[in-house]
Amino acid sequence: MKTWFYSLTTSILFFLILAGGSSYAHASTDAAKVHATPPENVYYEELNGLFIELPYAEDLVNVEKENDTLFIRDLTTNDLLEQITLRNTVQAADDHPLLPPPITVPPTEEFMEMFSTREYNGLEVVLNVRFVVTKNAEGIYEEVVDIRDAWWTTGSGPHTLEDSNTDILHGDFPVREFTVTGQTTIVTQIDASARAGFEAAGFSVGVDVSGTYYARMTVRDTMVFDLFS
């Protein structure tokens, strides 16, 4: 019988993507991808033992690393395009059977979460996923053994999310890669004077029978975890 303990160390894979950056630096529909080893022929940054493939032109952005976080800014405007923080929670076996030499040590399990947060005209939406990945004795990530759930949330502010849905694409466990994708609609009540600004930001604006103005925008997001490379 194996017992498990939780050693709270680093636990969150967090993607913060801010709207308003240069359209030349990246395409907003592109997804950052997490790799176990450095990917070839793409732009990536190392963060806490994993490698983040970034959907940006390397010569058009400035990337600063501070503790567990990457700050990605437009090289020309200095606008913050994306903020990526990567942490994990180790879940390791505290005992294991003593087999004939050499002793076999079970792989370490790490509970991870990924959050991809974007802002649209100051309104925040977050695509979330929780999953469990194994790491061998050499510290190499090997397999995803479980994906718990995926869901949308939103930060504080005068807005809500409607018609949210998510989809997790993967094979039979254990797997070495998966994709989380989803769609949600941001809804917020606005003053009539704010209509032009929201429409310029891509929202559709309507008014109900009571004369109240509402701005809506349907958005999609995608996150990729890939241990093949």
The end-to-end distance, rounded to whole angstroms, is 34 Å
Main beta-sheet strand count, sense and barrel state: 9 strands, mixed
Low-confidence stretches: 1-24
Q: Oligomeric state of the chains?
A: single chain
- Net shape: globular
Q: Roughly how many Å is the radius of gyration?
A: 21 Å
- Based on helices, strands and strand pairing, what is the structural class? mainly beta
Q: What percentage of the residues does DSSP assign to strands (E)?
A: over 45%
Number of helices: 1
Q: Overall pLDDT, averaged?
A: 80
H-E string:
EEEEEEEEEEEEEEHEE
Beta strands, count: 16
Helix amount? under 10%
Description:
The chain is mainly β. The chain contains one helix and 16 strands. Strands 1, 2, 6, 7, 8, 9, 10, 11 and 12 form a nine-stranded mixed beta sheet that branches. Strands 3, 4, 5, 13, 14, 15 and 16 form a seven-stranded mixed beta sheet that branches. The longest helix is centred in the C-terminal third of the chain and has 6 residues, at 195-200. The radius of gyration is 21 Å and the shape is globular. The chain starts with a strand and ends with a strand.
